[in-house]
Design a protein that fits this description.
Layout: H1 3-11, H2 30-42, H3 53-58, H4 74-84, H5 100-114, H6 119-132, H7 135-148, H8 160-163, H9 171-178, H10 182-204, H11 210-215, H12 229-232, E1 240-242, H13 258-264, E2 268-273, H14 290-293, H15 296-308, H16 325-346, E3 360-361, E4 384-385, H17 392-411, E5 413-415, E6 421-423, H18 430-438, H19 446-449, H20 452-460, H21 478-481, H22 485-503, H23 510-513, E7 518-525, E8 528-538, E9 548-550, E10 553-555, E11 558-569, E12 573-580, E13 584-594, H24 605-608, E14 613-622, E15 625-632, E16 639-640, H25 646-657, E17 674-675, E18 688-698, H26 740-743, E19 748-758, H27 762-765, H28 779-789
Parallel strand pairs: 2-11, 8-19, 16-17
Antiparallel strand pairs: 1-2, 3-4, 5-6, 7-12, 8-11, 9-10, 12-15, 13-14, 13-18, 18-19
Helix pairs in contact: 2-25, 4-5, 5-6, 5-7, 16-18, 16-22, 17-20, 18-22
Protein name: Larval serum protein 1 beta chain
InterPro entries: Di-copper_centre_dom_sf, Hemocyanin/hexamerin, Hemocyanin/hexamerin_mid_dom, Hemocyanin_C, Hemocyanin_C_sf, Hemocyanin_N, Hemocyanin_N_sf, Ig_E-set
Family: Belongs to the hemocyanin family.
Amino acid sequence: MKVAIVLLACLGLVAATSVYKKHEVKIADKTFLEKQKFLFEIVYRLEDPLMFEDYIKMGSSLFIEKSYYTTFDKYMEIFYDAYKVGALLPKGEFFGALVKTHAKQARGLFNFFYYAKDWETFMHNVAWARMHVNEGMFVYALTLAVIHREDFHGLMLPSIYEIFPQFFFNSKFVYEAEKFDYEMWMKMTMYEKEYMDVYYKNHAHGYGYGNMYQSGDYMYMKDFKMWQWWKLMGLGEHWYSEDKYILRENIYEFNQDSKWLSMMKDVKVWWMPVDYTRDLNMYNEESKLSYFTEDLGWNSYWYYLNMDYSFFLDGTTFDLKNDRRGEWWLYNVHQLLSRYYMERLSHGFGAIPEFSWYHQIEMGYDPQMIYYNGIGYSYRKNYYEMETYGNFEMLDKITSFMKRIQTIVDMGYYKTMDGHMIDLRKPESIEYIGNMMQGNVDAMDKMFFQFWYMLAHMYFADVDFHQMEVYPNVMLNFETMMRDPMYYMFYKSIVQVYFQFMHYLPKYTKEQLLMPGVSMKHVEVSELTTYFDLVDFDVTNMLNDKMVFHDGKFVWDKSLYARQMRLNHKPFTYTYTIESDKVEKVVVRAFLGPKFDEFGKMISLTENRMNFMEIDEFFYELKAGTNMIKRNSNEFYWTVKDRTTYTELYYYLMMAFDGKYDFPLDISEPHCGFPDRLVLPMGWKKGMPMQMFFMVMPYSAPTHEQFSTFDYTYSCGIGSGARFVDNMPFGYPFDREIDEYEFFVPNMYFKDVKIYHADTMEPYYKYKGYSNYGHFDYTFFSDYYTKYFKY
């Protein structure tokens, strides 16, 4: 459920903004539950044939009569013609959202889902596609339809990392999950019990291997970092039975809930420790950041951003223009790179390397992943030269686009093929630039600007123009591309166009930045602390054992989880002291940025503005006099906590079907939220010096007041025009170049801060070691976590 709201209520904190309005929690009715049940079951174990008899009957044929659809376009005709002649991407083959031939077919399938007149037509088409269409294409089109159909508000799919865990974990773990067998696990457990008892008994008396660990002869390798925690607990990389609870940051909301405990007692749960990628065969320093670049929340955020504002959805039909889709996409790229740069600084790395099509890519990358058809993902060696692919026609198209857009930004105008003149010296023209850089259908002159983005990613994967069957490559799908260090280099070149455009806009003057009568006197920031915690990710979709049905009803009796270390931070607060000479509606913004570069040299504000990440903004009505505003990191409207897992959602749903539970529509977090735990970069034990920037500014009302047209607790409001606090440019006031003689005004405040890092594994390698060696330490959450990281 909406964790931020629950925590605020529990802590007695008063929200500093009208954003969190009181709302009535909506409970799902029977019709809604039936629809939700269908969506949960249709994506269950996609690698296997569909086993639900009702859906098999339902999906016997695709509805092709035009009367079943609000629109029947050419993409739907092309898709069905391809199906009739056997030209669709076969099931089991790798699907790439950025492969041109795949995207064209996916668009047709999406239209069959999106334009279906009613739920009945939609359901039949989805059931048909589940049995006849490539699995990756099916999920891609279905996700888009669930997000964008107006009549589907509140309906959801499991998270993408639960539908396709293979895209988020290494091949070693995937193999172990796919070959998991309950009967074999039971036999191995009984067989090993006697041996293990002797081993741990000897260990306790100082005779086992653990004696080396406790006597100080065992060397704790810092290279393993926190994410190989199981070695310090004496555990192996195999399956363990779980009879207590599922690990996550909001664990206390569930393990003390009688309904949750009653619900989960009937499901057998296993977990296995899982590591991040480490490039042992092609060593480079970038592998130190694998805990961040391979984080499930980090990658899924980028995936859902590109589902919400998909490149082939036009801004008029889907109302994406209401959200300034081009500017928003480009600003997100900028913010993600700023966040990545701060994580690099925490490890002593410098600026993101420059990208060139004609120079070596120093950092190679081996994803160590395997597609569900058994084919491994392709890799790139260190010092690889992109031009050696030899597809010079495609490379020429890509580089010509970059030259063209840089030229028109410098010229300040663009004349379209039909003679229309576009002024690129207006601030709102950033929308055109964003559309072109994303290569979406709203880009002006589609002939020149639409496909460059797709072709660039195809070139990275060595895919030809009309190729259908391709090798798996992380750069061809949004949910996997951020794992590769080259992603950040390439997207840096995209962001440089954003800053090139901003270079030609006039700098903000003191008069524009000043808010007369309002002064920000002080901001008190609580301690900022990061740490690594443990989490369980639901990977049940990789099970391969026989599905259980009782009286025709599916019985979800087993679940698999991946237990992984991931970066998190202690909740923090900051308290504003703002003086105003009158009552006034304002917006308060907060940014986080570096103070020094990797050499300890202070970065000038003129240069550093590109590195600031906006972490909070909210509406507030100032009173005359002194205003004390307390803001908690749990209140950030754009962040989310851990989502409710696939297994739990299904059990809650079935309880609601039986009348034993009221299924709230906000039972899980909105799909579009950024992980709250990644707001802060990993700190240092002695404190990593950073700086925060705060600004209070007049409220500039958007066309639709924020959250006025949708319920933010379960909906993202895509296309509503009501997603944002105001209508100021994204990133204001750091969007334009800075004149330091004009920039500093009383309604701004800079604050030097330090981010500390607490080593949660220190008790396991220091002092006397871990006394319960060979068993998972459940006090990790109940003792240490409670003491240090919970209000």
